[in-house]
């Protein structure tokens, strides 16, 4: 099929959006390509369409597990075969999925950059018929980006697996410096192309307000802008408190943060996406991978850590290209807090070593042990146990990740999964020998199809109801059958994953790049300064954001709070000039007056404005002079 036929058949569109076709054609021509497109600009189409138009599989690298899962489900809904591999999956489960990519009809393999560090995964990709490497959130490869992720630094080695396959890097948030860094670190080949779509969001009205009573202003926004909205706050406690206050005002609202159970998070997200609950109060854990086009407003009640993060979060409003609002409320205390966070984001070498030492103790690792081991990781519990500051600890973990001592994944919900390893005859013999397991095995086979072929998502609670066993008994029996190698069972998880990439070292042998720490501190300072300048500056908000992303010739948007205030001031000025002119002409129609007699009689405007309008009328011949007196 042609790319237009693919677009129509699978996505239902008759035409591509701006730059999409040019990016796709560049990829089809075999060129390495960098696509810089704003949030909601249709980046996924740029790799999904050419991959469908060519024979083979597209390998998509993404750091966002929620986004991977969402895109896989969307592709499957279109009848396109896609799978995702990320932290939390077992070796056997990954084996089966990779085999399907080599021998099956899979068109898209979504994979986290951490997984590409595995020699097993890389070797299996070598045997796939890859037609494109798509690297999403490509700014993560640059330490100058706002969300640098060390595993991205290894992506250039994809060339070793398939030297002729083009690489398409995509991002919605990149300055010129970051864009140059991306093409350099991915070792783009000669003749590569860069497509930059303006980051301007012409339908999005940016509003910044210095407010002591943020809640009162928030209510005004909610009451005046109808439709779906997101309110971003800094921490979990705030999500609950703000939602509670809004509910007391009779507003239908839910709150969302990573501390909720997976089922509860899914329910609240679905209720909001469907419009059942129009408003959600959330931490920045909410929104990744969610494509809801009709969000009418996004409100930030706390200052963001960077303009890149703000642009991405605010950009979730108005993706349907209809009028929407991005409102940022702050006060002087917020600026103090942001500067304090800057300090928290800058751990010393000693503090980094201390965090690493505590990690070893937390997971009870001996020196020289732990390489390759993966653990569920509860950051809050870890910090509480060792009395550590959360932000500083998170920054220390990122530096340890950059130095490749550890790898840390985001929190992700994975349902329990199960695959039967034994053949039917062996399983039947086990049922005869162990009759207490017979009911559970029969229920498994009746309830779930494909258990002999692949990992299937199961629910222990459902099995419990159907077998009259407790949920605990179901789990224990499945674990026992796993020990006997009758099946492979991966229990549900809802925790971030921490992996030790190297064996545990003592403090004296823990290598940390001092220069990198200094550079990261300089980047944080620059990002914080840019946020403070954005909220305090008297300039067009859109123009400021575009300037930050190196679009230096942007015009005033005309719809942000600054531009609207300018228009109001200009209208007021025009109205005042009209009132002064009318008053002068009316007075001089009734009597002739000297200038010094006229001015005291005028009620509108300042004396300077009055004199200016007097001269305008005189020059236009609308008032005349005779014997030092004026008349109209």
The average pLDDT value, as a whole number, equals 89
As a percent range, the share of strand residues is 5-15%
How much helical structure, as a percent, in the residues? Answer: 40-55%
Total helical segments: 25
What structural category characterises the helix and strand content? alpha/beta
Output the CATH class name of the largest domain: Alpha Beta
In order across it, which strands form the biggest sheet? 3-4-2-5-6-1-7
Oligomer: single chain
The largest β sheet comes out as: 7 strands, parallel
The assigned CATH architecture of the largest domain is 3-Layer(aba) Sandwich
The stretches of 5 or more residues where confidence is low (pLDDT under 50) are none
How is the CATH topology of the largest domain named? Rossmann fold
Radius of gyration: 31 Å
Estimate nothing, just give the exact number of structural domains.
Answer: 5
What does it look like?
The protein has 632 residues and is α/β, with parallel strands linked by helices. It folds into five domains: 3-196, Rossmann fold; 204-330 and 528-548, P-loop containing nucleotide triphosphate hydrolases (Rossmann fold, 3-Layer(aba) Sandwich); 340-412 and 495-512, Arc Repressor Mutant, subunit A (Orthogonal Bundle), CATH 1.10.10; 416-490; 561-631, Arc Repressor Mutant, subunit A. 46% of the residues lie in helices and 15% in strands. The chain contains 25 helices and 21 strands. Strands 3-4-2-5-6-1-7 form a seven-stranded parallel beta sheet, sandwiched between helices. The protein has a six-stranded parallel beta sheet with strand order 8-13-12-9-11-10, with helices on both faces. Strand 20 (624-626) and strand 21 (629-631) form a beta hairpin. Helix 2 (20-28) packs parallel to helix 3. The longest helix is centred in the C-terminal third of the chain and has 30 residues, at 561-590. The termini are far apart.
